[in-house]
Amino acid sequence: MMQQPKGIKILLVDDEPNILNFLELGLQNEGYETQTAQDGISAITMLKQFQPHVVVLDVMMPGMDGFEVCRMLKKTENVAVIMLTARDEVDDRVKGLNLGADDYMVKPFSFEELLARINARLRNQYPSLFSEVVFGPFQIDDRRKEIRYEDRVLELSPTEYELLKFMVLNHGLVLSKTLILDRVWGYDFGGEKNIVEVYIRSLRDKLNDKDHQLIRTLRGSGYRVDLP
C-alpha cells in the first residue's frame, strides 16, 4: 500500500458507537487524523472546526439523516463524501449520488475496501497531496512519473518506474518475486519470474548500486530496499 501524506483528516459520522470505534481505530492505525460524530447536526458543526478531507457518512440516523447532511456538506464545502449504509436499494444509491455523494458503500463492508475507496477519493479530489513523496534519497513525483535519487533524475522505463516506486514505498519489507509480479506486472502476467531479476539488475545499474546495499537480495525470499 502506498504511504499516505500526513495530515489527512477524516470525519466519521454514524449513530452506532461500535462502528465508529472500529473505523476510528482502523483509520488512525493507517495514519489518518479522525474525528467522530453520532448525528447530523454534530457532523455539520464539526465540519467547520475539523475541516476534513473525507467524510464517511451513515444514512440512517435520528434527526437529520445522511442524505440531508450530504446535501448541506456539498452545498458549502469541498469535501469528499462516502456514504456508508445498510440501505442497498438502487433508489437510495441514486438519491445519495444525486445529492453529491462521491461514493456509496453498503454495510456490512470490508475495511480494506473502504480504505481503497478513501484513497481513490483523495487522489481524485486532492491530487496535489499525492504529487510528491520523499523517502530518504528518493523523491517520487507520481504526476510526472519521475523518480529522483540523490537529486538526480533517473532515466526509467514505465515498468522500471513502477517497480522502483513499489519497492521504495515498501522499503524495509521483503518483497517476493510473486508479489512483485502481481503488483507491477499484474496478476495475469504469463511470463517468466526471472523477468524480475532482469529489471532489478537494470535498476541497480542506474542507481550505481554495485554492492547491492540499496536493493538487497534475500535468497529464497525476494528483495528488500534498505534506505540510508
Helix amount: 40-55%
Please provide the count of β strands: 11
The best one-word shape is elongated
Portion of residues in beta strands equals 15-25%
Helix segment tally: 8
User: What is the assembly state of the chains in this entry?
Assistant: single chain
Question: What does the model show?
Answer:
The protein is α/β, with parallel strands linked by helices and 228 residues long. It has eight helices and eleven strands. It has helices spanning 17-29, 40-50, 66-76, 90-98, 111-125, 158-169, 177-185, 194-206, and strands at 9-13, 33-37, 54-58, 80-85, 103-106, 133-135, 138-141, 146-149, 152-153, 215-218, 222-225. The two termini are 21 Å apart.
Compile the SSE list and pairings.
Blueprint: E1 9-13, H1 17-29, E2 33-37, H2 40-50, E3 54-58, H3 66-76, E4 80-85, H4 90-98, E5 103-106, H5 111-125, E6 133-135, E7 138-141, E8 146-149, E9 152-153, H6 158-169, H7 177-185, H8 194-206, E10 215-218, E11 222-225
Parallel strand pairs: 1-2, 1-3, 3-4, 4-5
Antiparallel strand pairs: 6-7, 7-8, 8-9, 10-11
